[in-house]
């Protein structure tokens, strides 16, 4: 009878994790491009990229995975779709939601289930509103009328971002369930277990 030798824990990032992080980053850019629909409902563009972040965070079970996806995705958005927000705030709008998912995942886990995924999607998308407000507040100044307008805008945008964040989380849960049912080898032992490692 042979003794089993325990294998040392792998160091660095697995190729599968790098692939998922890259795909999520690309989905952030594509999601922002695809949902550029001229409608007056604030936050509608977040459905796809919030779903991508939630899915990616469930698959890559590393404590900083969401933040890294937000960093890579935010940098791609800044490069290919520059906005008036500037590079710093333009990237922070995706980095901060990734950080929020990293903080929530150990508490909620199981993003393949509807309620945790919707809560995570809502919180992550709402964090983008906070970044928008901080940006507007800093640019306008605390004592100007523009700062008051920014506060009113924050209140009106919150509902839209909350709604589309919930929808993005729900979409993520459906996709994760479908992937788990498909028994994709790369997902084996990942979202099913729940929780962070």
Give a structural overview:
This protein is mainly α and 197 residues long. The protein has a single domain (15-33, 41-184), classed as Arp2/3 complex 21 kDa subunit ARPC3 (Orthogonal Bundle), CATH 1.10.1760.20. The chain is 70% helix and 0% strand. The chain has helices spanning 15-34, 46-59, 65-80, 86-108, 114-140, 145-181. It is globular and about 55 Å long. Mean pLDDT is 80; it is low at 1-10 and 193-197.
Tell me the β content: under 5%
| Helical content (DSSP H or I, runs of 4+) | 55-70%
Query: What class, by secondary structure content?
Result: mainly alpha
Q: Would you give the CATH topology?
A: Arp2/3 complex 21 kDa subunit ARPC3
CATH class: Mainly Alpha
Distance between the termini: 33 Å
Radius of gyration: 18 Å
How many distinct domains? Answer: 1
Q: Which CATH architecture is right? A: Orthogonal Bundle
Form type: globular
On the 0 to 100 scale, the average pLDDT is 80
